[in-house]
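This part of the workshop introduces the protein records we will be handling. The structure tokens are whole numbers drawn from a learned vocabulary of backbone shapes. The record below serves as our worked example for the rest of this section.

===
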Amino acid sequence: MKCAIYARVSSDKQADSIEHQVSLLTEYAKERRWEVTGVYEDEAVSATRITLWQRPAMKRLLDDADQGKIQVVLFKGISRLARDVEEAVGTANRLKAKGLRILSLEENFDSNNVDSEFFFTIYAALARQEVEKLSIRVRYGQRQAAKSGKWVTGKPPYGYKNVGGRLIVDEDSAWIIRRIFDLYLNDGFGARKICDYLNENNIPTAMGKGRWRIARVCQILQNPAYKGAVVHSRTRKEVIRDYDSDSIKRTKITHNARDEWGITENAHEAIIPVEIFDRVQQRLKKHRKRRKPNKRYPLSGIATCSKCGGSMVVVKKKNRKPSGKTFTYWYYRCSTYLNDGKTGCTGQTIRRENLEEIVFNDLENELKKWRNDREFWENFSLVDHTEKEISREIENVERRIKKLNKDVKDLFDQRDLFDEEMYRGVMQDKRKEIENARQQRDELKERLENGERESINIEEIREKIEDYFSGKLNPTDAANTFIQQVIVNKEAGTIKIEYILDDRR
């Protein structure tokens, strides 16, 4: 009887080592005078986060089974095979479909026995329950460590070093944190102005390169670690299977309610004194803007910045006159400038009423021309293929290319888990898939450039034009119906409006 031994551990610290599993299973096979034709080891591979079909050793086992090298698969326990009930049962069925006999020592399971599938499901469920118990113990241990002041939440905040599980001030970067708080509280800088200051003065980010971003500055200003506190239990993780694929699991991060958080004060040396940190939080709270959800302005999603191509969003500004009276103004402003400061884009800003007046006046004049242009409607071109369908195909291909590129990166990062021949083969296949996907994308783009555009219903367009002049279609909806893009170039004093029918006239 040709026998294969499968062994797995999720880390080199796990008590049930690969060597122990292999030794135990080898002895079991010898007692039955079975020939061990292969030992398949997946080391430092988590069964919770990595599916069976992503494991290098299991892939080799299946390949050898296809070649008739294996008749029996031995493993110490079902938890070594899989810790997801559905995946464990699916794996057993897949192995049996190849004509293999499956044996698990811990559960005394043999797939040749009567009702084996029923008992296998029960054993798999128990293995899953054990994983959940272990996960609870790990989380509890981490929570207790955090309560004692240890840093257990990953990479230390900028300005600190993790030494033996404790945060120690790193003076090489702590001065940057102090400067950020000083600029905000004492110099009256906002997050955008702080971001500009840091970038203009070439002050390094936590990565040592790249630009400072407004969101990062805001995170620093609100991080309680800088006042010496450790906050834990903000989130919890859950591994979820992607049911559209047999090889993908993803981690879902759920944010806990604030009353479920745990805070340990004075856990480590503070970079920012508590009273200063609290004053910053009060100022942040005072200046935090409350935004109405899903507020849509007439040119949202249409107006763009001529400098960077970013969308223009509406912002509010208040001015107080010498008389004491406050005036509120609304502007369309470059979103890149808002997010990254002037290091991302020097920005375009235009009064909302001015831009909307220009666009709506031009829109009405354009619709009048279309409405009265009999020759245009008589020669209106209709095409058979749809731009939307081709665009959707391009988006799908782009997503596939992105996933394949991620697969290549992951494969490269885990190359030590593969033998050289297998690594080269898998990498070559992935690169071939990327090449084919890029070729498909280029062909689709060429079809678009060759005039395969969206069919437009002539009667529907004319009906909407009449609806506008009769008052049934308001200016905002008309702008979103007939305008493709509004390009704002304030410096040149131009506003370019692109309409959906421009290339059909």
